[in-house]
RNA sequence: GCUGCUGUAGCUCAGGGGUAGAGCGCACCCUUGGUAAGGGUGAGGUCGAGAGUUCAAUUCUCUCCAGCAGCACCA
């Protein structure tokens, strides 16, 4: 057997190296520049330490900072380890658990020593300082394979209960590795890592915040302190990231909602929105648009009760599986006697609806349905209440009173896939109308807590999978992914996700195929054979809820809503008070043409008015002075336009604005 | 719900054991100005709520409430 190994490089060349050689040796043989730049190695497609010897002949690609995705992943993982080492150096007795890289940085979950409070923001500067020390010490990171028993023993001896538990539970066939940092600290880790801590840039990371996180993501377990950081290849990248965060903060719908006077929230109605006139105008336009879209798609709109008796919710199954999230109301006249309880202990219960589905089944059940009547497409702008945990509430994106663009499609088995596919097309059309060029579709599979047989779930999951495939959307372009355990208790879900200003994704659209509820509420139709059959019920929403969707729209457009959605579409601003009468005329004519217009006749300079309305994100500013009043023109200034103004006859301006203010579905097809 | 941070004028924020400040906004006055802040005067605050320590608390301590970030949960 030859002692020389054949290492093929990306350029096709092959180098021979001694057994025991490492990718670092190859890099050094190629040139000192590469030796310095090489961070890790891709050996037969697997990213490995640059100091780890080859196992045999291999294909090798060296990873440098030019392979940005891989390089970032490596440094972030290393920052996480340095973070853990720093925390233990500062506070001996701290337990360490788990610390991966993330989208833009890293975190490490730790448990403060017994008797010490969880780490807080005040501790971060000291940790950062210690991390810099460790980086500057340029400690070699050395990989070793350990026997499981030895590893568990070590963790137990050091009081690392979490690590010990984890080491014991790693799969039998997995090789357990540790990484030494210098000679005095080690962590159990699969790797890979850089050759030494000194490869990190001490100025390219920043600890961002601390938060609680449950051990293994389970609320029943101990809560650890998660220390988050952002980490980059160099300081320039770090600063660019911090700048991006700042910019994203400016798009926050809560901030814009206040600045633009769209809505507010207050403690007396936690999680429920006070829509101001301007914010509600967006809602009205959105609702009108959705009505046109669902009319066109063949839905019939209904309206169903807010309050229903607990018995109804018991029958639908919500009482058993969803009660924690429901607002329950006693069905009793409240006592006005100061000495008596407001309601008796055994009052009958009602509940505000958390979903519209049971009520829609009740409508479906009125009268007898023939197989010819199916599919029945029922829609409701359904206002629902869900008793969400306080910590979950988030502006418009997570509320307790929400209005869904809900709908239920009752189908025969043979119609199911086709209807799901049609729905995929509807969502695509709607999202594109709002300029969402990319979104993600995910399939949430059966959860642990569920109704129905495994066969039904197999079938339901397959149907959704197939429908998306038929629509051509089960691809990477659509972020296609399956999420085990994430489905609703009654059905698997297809989910459509959009992204907010700082990159968090939110579910908006969904469709779920459900055989449970029609069964529980005994919905049926008469088939061709004259027998009773169960319809399948598709629960679906396109924009999800008006609250969330408007929140996402505000962030998506950074407040600069397209003309058709803008609450104030135009402002007529005067330069001199002599033009006041003319400005009123202009505004009146625009109003007659259906444009939402305001006048600004204040005793202020035009500069001031331009600035103010620009900041208020009014799409069009119509400036009128003496000249325009005499000539019957206006000077139009568009928000965000480079050209300053365009003087045009009033008629022309009105016709133009009227055309531009049409919703996407009302525009002539080009 | 859990962990951490925060709560001072309509908004953004400074301050600090002895009853409170700025800028913007608002009101009034002067100014009629041609495309991103003209000038002046003035009004406006139980310093999130409650309790404790103190001669004295907006400031220190505790409890609660709310907001923010994350976790868990979810549209």
TrEMBL record:
This is Threonine--tRNA ligase. Homodimer. Its EC number is 6.1.1.3. Keywords: Aminoacyl-tRNA synthetase, ATP-binding, Cytoplasm, Ligase, Metal-binding, Nucleotide-binding, Protein biosynthesis, RNA-binding, tRNA-binding, Zinc. Residues 1-64 form the TGS domain. The gene is thrS. Belongs to the class-II aminoacyl-tRNA synthetase family. It comes from Parasphingopyxis marina. The lineage of its organism: Bacteria, Pseudomonadati, Pseudomonadota, Alphaproteobacteria, Sphingomonadales. Its cofactor is Zn(2+). Binds 1 zinc ion per subunit.
